[in-house]
Amino acid sequence: MTQNQLLKKLLLLFCGFCLYGISQAQTINGKVTDENNVPLSGVSVQLKNSTKGTSTDADGQFSITAAQGSSLVFSSIGYTSLEKKVSGNMLSVVLIKSAGNVMSDVVVVGYGTQKKSDLTGSVATAPIEDMQKAPVRSFEEALAGRIAGVVVSSVDGQPGSTNNIVIRGNNSITGDNSPLYVVDGFPIENPNNNAINPDDIESISVLKDASATAIYGARGANGVIIITTKTGKAGPPVISFDASYSIQKVNNSIPMMDPYDFIKYQLENSPGDTTVTGSAAYYYLKRGATLDSYKDSANIDWQSRLFRTAPMQNYNLSLSGGNAQTKYALSGSVLDQDGVIINSNYKRYQGRFALNQNLGKKFKTGFNANYSHLEQSGVNPSSFLTSTALPVL
What predicted TM-score, i.e. pTM, was given to this entire model? Predict the structure, then answer.
C-alpha cells in the first residue's frame, strides 16, 4: 500500500467519525408552553442521565445539543415534570399545571419567595381556592378554622363589622393582639379588610413566632399575615364572572317567658309594694293591677319581630391578560348583605386595576390601585342599652 493510498484511507476514516459524531449530537430547538399555549420561562431542560441542561427564555424558547432518540426532561415549579424523546430538530412541549404541589413548594415571605423546605420558622399557607368557594364578605371570615393556631372571632355579627384575628394566643392583656398585615409588600396595621375583595387574593401566608419577628421585628410580635393580590398573566385576555346568593337566619332563638311568668319572676326578684320606688310592684302593679291581671295579656314574641331571614348577594367580574412584557388585571365587585336584625345592611362597591411592565431585562415597574366604597347601616347589637318597660293593661 502506497503512502497516498494510506493517507486517503485515514482521511476517509476521519470524515466517517466526524459524520458519525454529527449524526449522534445535534442542536435541538424547541418551545415550552402551558395548556393555554402561554410560553413558560425558566423551565429546566435536562438531558436524561447527564449533567447537560439549559432553561427556557422569556418566550419559552430553548436550545440544547442532544442525539436523536435521547430523552429530555422538562420541569418547573407548579407543573408536572415531562420526559420527551428527541425526534427531529424541533420540539414542542406542553406542561400541565400541578396545583396540588404549588403551595408546598413555594411560600411567600416578607422579602420575596422561598422554598418551604428552606424555612426554619413556622409559616402556614391558606388554601385560597377553597376559601374563595365560601360565600363570605371578607377573607377574614374565610380564614376561620383553616390554619392551626389562627383564631378568628366575630366582634358582634353586624354586617361589615371587623373580626378579631389572634395568632397563637394573646401576647398582651391590655394591649392590641392584632397581627401585622402586609398587602403586596406594604405593611399595614389595623386595616379595614373589607376593602379587599377575597376574589382578588392570589395567596395568604401566615408567619408565626420567629418567622415574623426575624423579618418585621417588634411589629411582627403578634404574627404577620401576608396577602398577595392577583396580577395579569401572559396570554390572551381571560374574562371571569361569578355570582353567589346566600341566606342568613337565626336557627335557635331563646325561649322567653309569657307575661304572667315574667311579672311573677320580677315580683319575687324585687319585693316591695307600689310605694317603694324601683320595686317590681312599683312598675307593674299600679292602677289596681294584680299578678292575675297578666294571665290574659297578649304574649308577643319580640325575637320574631327583631330577627329576619336576610339575603346576601355577591358579584365579581375580572379581566386579565398580557404578554411577556406587559401584564394587566382589572376587576370589580358588588356586595349587598342584609343583617339578620331588621334595618341593618352592608354594601361594598370595589374596583381594582393592576399593571406590570418590564423595562428591558433588568428593570420592571408596576401599578396597583384599589378603590372601595363601603356603606354600613343599623344599630350596633353589642352596644349596652337599658330601659324599663311599663305594662299596658
Answer: 0.62
